Amino acid sequence: MTPVAGVDGCPGGWIAVRWAGEDVSHHLCRSFLEVMALDAAVIAVDMPIGIPERSGRAVEREVRALLGQRQSSVFSVPSRAAVACAEYREACRANQANSDPPRKVAKQSFHLFPKMREIDALMTPELQSRVFEVHPELAFWAMNGASALALPKKVKGRPHEPGLALRRGLLERAGFPLAALSGPKHRAADVGADDLLDACACAWSAGRLAQGKAFRFPAAPPLDAKGLRMEINA
User: Fold this and answer.
1) Mean pLDDT across the chain
2) What residues have CB less than 8 Å from 166, skipping those under 6 apart?
3) 108 is a domain residue
4) What's the DSSP call for residue 90?
5) Is residue 24 in a domain?
6) Is the pTM of this model over 0.85?
């Protein structure tokens, strides 16, 4: 199997799961440059690639409609002017000036801005042949026969074991060798159990991308000002 990697942002940086057949391991990377240095033909990351000039992207609206009760896991990507801001109130003002109707920035998405800026600084249209945007809940939707999951993976900010167990089962039935996952143990403060599971789901999507089997939303993605496709794959 062609080596691929699935990546999720985490408090310690980026948690990457590299998958090549029965060889599967996880790596805590402090920067996205470290992620890109991994031996992986395809990298699938749960982080926006392609930032709109006006707040919101068509792909979020399309994907939310598929995810039922899990749709809140897909946040609207703010405007490029807002993402460039390092201070929350400044970001809210910038986004209000670049959205219709005017809207502020959600605190949850604001905390992702540093990672969004990190990827955006590196990405080029050419790199999108190797680095793709994905979303774990969309991957689980695909594993579940194109059906939304009934159980959340977190409740009140804490891991929800029934939801995590559901997702582990889907990964295993979809052929991902979860039991073979090896690698160093990370501090819970750096990598949460849900972060690692999401990275596994991203790796599964990376495998589908490598095989040309992935869903792409939307089918004809628009481009941002840098020429980057604004899409989510699963």
Assistant:
1) 96
2) 149, 150, 151
3) no
4) H
5) yes
6) yes
pLDDT tens-place string over residues 134-192: 999 999 999 999 999 999 998 888 888 999 999 999 999 999 999 998 777 888 899 99
**Contact call for residues 28 and 50 (beta carbons, < 8 A):** no
Report d(CA 4, CA 40) in Å as an integer. 4
Strands across the sheet containing 42-46: 23-29, 13-20, 4-10, 42-46, 131-133
Distance CA 67, CA 137 (A): 8
Strand duo 131-133 + 154-155: pairing: unpaired
Tens digit of each residue's pLDDT (9 = 90 or more) over 82-119: 999 999 999 999 999 999 999 999 999 999 999 999 99
Structure tokens at 122: 């590196």
Q: State how many domains the chain has.
A: 1
The HSE-up count of residue 76 (CA atoms within 13 Å, CB side) is 16
Question: Is there a domain that residue 19 lies in?
Answer: yes
Token duo for residue 39: 């031996």
